[in-house]
Write a structure and sequence with these properties.
Layout: H1 2-37, H2 44-50, H3 80-97, H4 104-145, H5 159-170
Length: about 170
């Protein structure tokens, strides 16, 4: 029994030593992988060297435009005119903020503005179509509800009989 316990202790110690050795090599491999991918850097100088820092003096408040375009507040455009005004304000704001050649942001914004125009025009057309369909539906309902009763007197009616028939037709059923 003692031999089995000594054998188990030996196996356990070998296992622990091998596990620690594997873990230490894996740990360094994982750290090196993150460093190589650029996700984590343990060297602050390496990180600082990769930064592109360019200092610019801020625009003084007196030279800033005080127009309403500098105070851009986005709102929902309900008409094409409102959309055009908001689009021009946004483009002016971007031109002042971005001192670079045309960027993907400008392309995306132009595409969004174009889609908004299409949306507003299609909404106007659909609203008009909906109104026309409602009017046509009301006409059909009125036509369907009209009375189709016919007077079946071949000889003619007296005045009292005609008044009674007219009252019957005007009364709701």
């Amino acid at each position: 029994m003692l031999d089995i316990l000594q054998c188990l202790k030996c196996i356990y110690s070998c296992f622990v030593n091998n596990l620690l050795e594997v873990f230490q090599s894996t740990n360094s491999t994982i750290k090196n992988s993150f460093i190589a991918s650029g996700l984590v850097s343990l060297y602050t100088e390496r990180v600082l060297n990769k930064l592109n820092i360019s200092l610019q003096t801020p625009i003084s408040p007196s030279s800033r435009p005080s127009s309403r375009s500098s105070q851009f507040t986005p709102k929902i455009s309900r008409t094409v005119t409102q959309l055009f005004k908001q689009a021009s304000l946004l483009k002016n704001l971007l031109d002042r903020r971005l001192y670079s050649p045309p960027s993907p942001i400008k392309t995306v914004i132009d595409q969004m503005i174009k889609n908004s125009y299409l949306f507003l025009y299609s909404t106007a057309l659909l609203t008009e179509d909906n109104a026309n369909l409602r009017m046509a539906n009301e006409k059909m309902i009125k036509k369907r509800n009209r009375s189709t009763k016919r007077i079946s007197c071949a000889e003619g009616l007296t005045i009292e009989e005609a008044i009674q028939l007219a009252e019957q037709l005007n009364q709701p059923e």
